[in-house]
Amino acid sequence: MSVIVYELNEVPRKLFDFYSSAFPLSAFALLRNQSKLFQTQTADIGNLSPWITWPTMHRGVSNIDHEISELGQNLQAVNKEFPNVYEILAKGGIQVGIFGSLQSYPLPDKLENYCFYVPDTFAAEDDCHPDHLTEFQSFNLSMVRKNGRNVSGNIDLKRALGFLRSSVKLGVKPYTFSKIARQLVAEKFNKDRLVRRRTSQIEIAFDLYFHQLKETKPDISFFFTNHLASSMHRYWPSVFPKDYREGRFDEHWLARWSAEIPHAVRVANYQLANLMDYCKKSGSELIVCGSMGQGAVEDVEPLESQILITNLKRLMTYIGVTEDEWEPKLAMAPRVVFTPKSEACLVKLQRLDDILVNGQKIELRHTASNDVRLNIMLTNQKQIEILDSGEFVPPAKIGIENVHLQDASGSYAYHIPEGILLHYEPHSDHGNNSTDEWTEISALDFAPSILQKFSMTPPAYMKKGGVF
Question: Is-above-0.90 flag for pTM?
């Protein structure tokens, strides 16, 4: 018996049911009709973010206990007190594979029971296991750095070439190469198609994961994808316009971006179809899950522009912080995050109090991981005016810009506590359950249920589990 966990980030029941119904022969529909269906409820308190809710699911305790609140947070203490379910499994002799699960950096100290281990796309370094996967991760991280609030058309050629040299050996399929080629051609004729590069990255990643899955055959493996969540945030109104007040969104905008969520769904559907076929042939089980979901933000306004810190190095130089006094961290736009490396850096950050951007200060927060997070909460501004102690500063000099958003999108859908979990056993007697309702469970049930599936007793701090 082996288990595949496909972590389909933030997809809610509403969207899964919608596409299952619309395409009855799709993998979505087959999975919906032939699986045990669960609607999960996160146990987290406060702001819901995937870098918080996934550790809750993986560790079997809420954020009140694990206290993970930031990407790149030092997890050394919490890994000892509330280890990941996959770490518990590996220590128990179960063969594990990890590909991109959130908060999976750094690599474990002991890797003997890990068939493969590729940390998430916000990892500080490109270390992977086995080592030959590092070429992919180096390229992957470089693309994340380039693609912030808008998707960049630029590519880190050195890292791209390094990955290309080994891509076929790593498992990238001719079909994926052809799709990427078509994507690059489409961008030349339609600049809007540039946004699909977010999805292209996960298509490459899945090929590598699937290759490792078939080659190493772990007892359990985890694959994480955010591509559909990213698309839902931006384009939810194009699929569910009735979730908003009539006339809130321009008809031209709705038509222009109406193909983006369907495109992301097709990619997820293709991957699920491959996994379901693999399960049928190998006798494996498939768990498709999310740590929470998304729903419409009803009072949101269309977003044309956003003031962003686009060059953190330039901003730090402007306030007198030298390069050896700080280290940049990967973060989700519009936030920028860095690690202060000296007390002098912290003192110099006080200069930000003198700077006003369209009358507002730059938001500064010290995180639980001793990093600093900067953010500017200004959207749909007709112009940008930056004052330093009353003196005008050119935006380019300070690394802050009023950025026109390529898809005129904000967070039109946002995080909700309810997620999904589907358990697919191809050779079970479960049969067709197209009329079944979704059973409600806690996200805290996931980790102990996985452990029980492998005949391991969950730690005392976990719930009883028993879902699978």
Answer: no
